[in-house]
Structure formats: C-alpha cells, structure tokens
C-alpha cells in the first residue's frame, strides 16, 4: 500500500477525471454542494440513494443532486434559480419599473434554466414575450407561475 496516497490526492484525481465526490457522515447536520463535491448526512444520502440509482439507470448520467434532494431535485434547482434571479435583479430594483432591455434578462433565464429544464426557460421567455411592456414584478410572477405549474 502506498503511504503517500491521501484523501486530497484521491479528491484531486476524481476532480481531474470529472467524477463527483460524495462525503457522507452521520455527524453532518447540513448538506452543501460545490460543482463536483457534496457533503451530506448519511441518513439523507441513504434515503435518496434509490432515486439516485433510478435516475442513473434512466439517464446514464451521474446526478448528485438526486442524493441531496431525491426525486424533487429539479424543483429544488428551479427554486434556487428563482432565488438567485431575485437577488440579482429584484432586490435593488423598483418592482414596478418597466424593463427596457429584456435580452440580458432572457439570456439570464435561459442560462439559469439550462440544467434544470429547457422547457421551463422557454416557457418563461415565451410568457415574457407576450407582454408589450413588462415590469420586474411581472417577470417575478411569470417565473413563479411557471415553476409552480411545471413542478
């Protein structure tokens, strides 16, 4: 056995090979996730493991989000998108202010929905396009409506 192999060596190898790392323990209270690593409570991981395996069998792709959120991982991702969008665009804006440049907003929606559901992003953009004039609060309502009706 090579004594020079450490957890950090293995972690780096997995990252270089684009393989997600799951660190689990009964002592972990809250979960967190980076792009290729999650820390998760063991009970939660084992509870969601059947959904992870089902998703892997169905899609042939490792989706570690299913270990964190189970079958509802897409809803959780959509709500995270909604939260990030709200922080970036709505907190420091007058909600009744008319949006004059929608292209950057629609690009942000498309990019934010890319890994969740292309259909969600397309539906939000289509609803925005139906409006002659649109305010920030109306965009927020459109996003909320589409998330609620699709998940």
Structure explained in plain terms:
The chain is mainly alpha-helical. 60% of the residues lie in helices and 8% in strands. It has seven helices and three strands, in the order H-E-E-E-H-H-H-H-H-H. The chain has a three-stranded mixed β-sheet with strand order 1-3-2. A hairpin with a 3-residue loop joins strand 2 and strand 3. Helix 4 packs antiparallel against helix 7 and helix 6 packs antiparallel against helix 7. The protein is elongated. The termini are far apart. The mean pLDDT is 89.
Strands of the widest sheet, in order across it, are 1-3-2
Sheet with most strands: 3 strands, mixed
Strand content: 5-15%
Helix/strand class: mainly alpha
User: Quick one: overall form?
Assistant: elongated
Question: What characteristics describe this protein?
Answer:
151 residues; 60% helix; 7 helices; 3 strands
Write the layout of secondary structure elements.
Layout: H1 7-16, E1 21-25, E2 32-33, E3 37-41, H2 42-59, H3 65-69, H4 73-90, H5 102-113, H6 118-129, H7 136-150
Parallel strand pairs: 1-3
Antiparallel strand pairs: 2-3
Short synopsis of the structure:
Helices cover 60% and strands 8% of the residues. The N and C termini lie far apart (49 Å). With 151 residues, it is mainly alpha-helical.
